[in-house]
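Colleagues,

Please find the record for the two-part complex below.
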Amino acid sequence: MLPDDRQSRIVLRCGFARDRPSGGLRYPRRVPVRVRFAPSPTGFLHVGGVRTALYNWVFARQSNGVFVLRIEDTDDERNREEWVTAIDESMRWVGLDWDERHRQSDRAELHATAAERLIASGRTYWCDCTRDAVDARAKERGGPPGYDGHCRELDKGPGPHTALRFRTPDDGETVVVDVVRGEPTFPNASIEDFIVVRATGKVMFVLANVVDDMDMAITHVIRGEEHLPTTPKYLLLWDALGGGERPVFAHLPVIVNEKRQKLSKRRDPVALELYRDEGYLPEVMLNFLALCGWSPPGDQERFTIDEMLALFRLEDVGKSPGFFDVAKLRAFNGDTIRAMSVEEFTDRAQPWLTGALAPWPADVYDADVFAAMAPLVQERVAVLSEVPGMIDFLLRDEVTIDDGDWEKAVKPDGVAQLLDELLVAWADVTWEHVPDEREPLKDTLFSIGEGLGLNKKRTQAPVRVAVTGRSVGPPLFESLVVLGRERTLERLRAARARL
RNA sequence: GGCCCCAUCGUCUAGCGGCCUAGGACACCACCCUCUCAAGGUGGCGGCACGGGUUCGAAUCCCGUUGGGGCUGCCA
């Protein structure tokens, strides 16, 4: 949390990144804080992006700063309007609200003006080398790939197939002041003369980025680590455009898959909406994503957004890549579901029961049936999309019997007789099950099983499979009471006939 | 290839020179509970990549090695 001196609304002195006696990274803490999350609408919002957005959002909120959502939609080839909507929806779903929202495509004029200023400054030159020519020359001289400065002194003017390059310094170095990484330093000689304006006249990503950050008075650039290598270019442009005090950077560790590679939209299941539809809870996603790169002091792992607001410090963000561990996410989600009141659980499961995500036609659902089963279902699901599968045998007229389960549970010797006796006994037993008190259903079943030398597991298994279709599910006797005597006996008879 | 980044149980992490015989969580295993599956309870397995320094003392600081990753587009 920022101290009270934020009120001064001026640029503050440097502070210590950590309260360690041995000192630490010094970085300016400017106020008022203005941060931005800048996704490009080339696909759904992915979990790594949400993590970045979250850190930005928290950082802004805890210092009374401004959180800017900037849609970087300057790549006509890949942008789609529907993805813009998807980003907004995803952001809303997890509750990350923005104070300002901009479309980079609306700002082309500003970018063009900046490009002109760059040209006027003499720091750029025109180049009409094709990619192939650049590669060919690199290959020829046997040097590293990349642009060789071919057109530097050729004094070419703008024209078709001609792009504008920024002339990088030949010596010196550019250091990035980074709250999480220290001060990565790049020799300027290793930075090639990069393109800032395409032959089409459109400015490139770095330039647009710099111009917008400058114009929006961004104080802290919090983004993925993959942007670190382009940061020196950013800084060179920032200075060339006279941006004044540079923003402070925080390059967040990448999130990787099980193969330790950066999460990719193409090969990994990373769309936030995927998790939403599967029944992961937004607060759990946020908690889990917060942990991808940061952890509160001590052993605490579960926290609310308010707790995170109180505890989060950018300088405590870790440096090493983190694996997106869905198993752990599931565990978190299950715990959170179990911690809910039954009312809340019922409420939040509705999309999968009666909404667009429900696996059955609207008239199949019966709220009374669900109400009777809810507490039992609640402690058995890890994600909400598993809810309908727990009770479908109670709602549908037909049960689909799992072949594997049938073989294992119903085929064994003695089951036929078990079913025969059960059909008789359950025909007039009191149809109720009150654990620890009256358990007529249970008692009759197990005494028949016992008489046939079947243990409890083997006794309940065939009944479960005959009635529910599967060998796993919610507690049997409670389910039977909801199902009712007639339908239960009907299914038992069907199973007996099938044997 | 070049530049940059990273390195504690299988995974995510705590650790900020002595509280470390390295703590927690997820996963896994065993047992208990039990009508199945879960949940819950108890216990267990399991780690400071390697090599040099610095220091009375290093998981912690420095250097190197190795390993992993990112970037290297007229994409963002």
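The longest helix of chain A spans residues 47-61.

Comments are welcome before we finalize the supplementary table.
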